[in-house]
Amino acid sequence: MSYYGWGWRPYVPVAKRRAQAMQKMEKLRKKGVNIQPVRIAGRQIASTFWGQAWCGHLEKFSDYENRLPRGRTYVRNGSVCHLDIAKGRIAAKVSGSEIYDVQIAIKPLAKDKWRRVKNSCAGQVGSLLELLQGRLSNHVMAVVTDKNRGLFPRPGEISLDCSCPDWADMCKHVAAVLYGIGARLDEKPELLFVLRGVDHTELVTEEAAKTVVSKARKTDRRTLDESELSEVFGIDVASVSSSKVTKAAAGTRPAGSAKPRSVRSSPNLKRRSVSSAAGKRVKTKEAGRKKPRGK
Predict the structure, then answer these.
(1) How far apart are CA 96 and CA 14, in angstroms?
(2) Which of the two residues, 222 and 154, has the higher pLDDT score?
(3) What is the span of the domain harbouring residue 113?
(4) Please, how many CA atoms are within 13 Å of residue 106, restricted to the half-sphere of its CB?
(5) Percentage of the chain surpassing pLDDT 90?
(6) pLDDT tens digits for 234-252?
(7) In this structure, is residue 38 part of a structural domain?
(8) How many structural domains comprise the chain?
């Protein structure tokens, strides 16, 4: 609320509020708090698939669509001084007339919902890179962003709390934090899965990963070893078949054996050998001649 004592709270310019907030955040940082502010470049709050999908999802619900716009200005002008996302919760600090603490609790994704999402996406997500960058097929996008069955929470699964004196459940500080989550997912989309308490690597199957690798090998001569594949795709990729191993072992030189010399010879070497042999024949003929007696 704006009412302050017996009158209205005096107006404080945004720039001054921001400077005061930065000073307070710096004090917390010196005390060991990992301060993570939300910074928006320009007017677009989210620019990637996951960030835009988060914001778009919340705006679909009538409970939120009329209240969320109150927070757009706040998040754009840098009022969300701190935003931390963990499993099932968001903790934030928002600069207003003073620094307000915002707590948002989100229920974990139900196991049956997660199972349906995995089954619907089975074999269609080739790598974690594709998943996190939002490079997905239309079918997978439709599954994960489904209003009722996807990865994003419904209003009934979200609990909101702010330390400000505003009586509304979704004050402008809470709304700013909800938009700030979308901006944070631009940077770290894996935090959505952390928030919902599910493992995003389960969406990448070993069969799909092998398909991507086999296609890459046809178009690129470079190959990756098993440890690199596991790191890229986030799963254990099976080693090469036993027949390939057998063939590779057959061509392997036993330990301790000498390296065989190359049987290839250069034309220059042949010329030197011929010249040397001819020289020997000439010397042999000269040695066989008798030296004429002097007159």
Answers:
(1) 9
(2) 154
(3) 3-124+154-199
(4) 25
(5) 41
(6) 444 444 344 444 444 444 4
(7) yes
(8) 1
Structural domain contains residue 250:
no
* Nearest Cα to Cα of residue 93 among 17, 168, 152: 17
Percent of the chain with pLDDT over 70: 65
Q: Do the beta carbons of residue 99 and residue 24 sit within 8 Å?
A: yes
Cα–Cα separations (whole angstroms), residue 107 to 55, 114, 153, 188 = 18, 13, 8, 20
Report field, pTM of the whole predicted structure over 0.90: no
In a domain, 267, yes or no: no
Helix axes 206-219, 226-233, angle to 10 degrees: 120
- Domain annotation covers residue 178: yes
Quick one: tokens of 158? 């979200």
SS3 label, residue 158: strand
Q: What is the mean pLDDT of residues 262-281?
A: 47
The pLDDT tens digits for 161-214 are 999 988 888 899 999 999 999 999 999 999 999 999 999 999 986 544 444 444
H or E segment at 93? Answer: strand 89-95
Q: Which residues pair with 99 in a beta bridge?
A: 95
Label residue 167 exposed, middle or buried (CB < 10 Å: 0-12, 13-18, 19+).
Answer: exposed
C-alpha closest to that of 192 among 162, 150, 155: 150
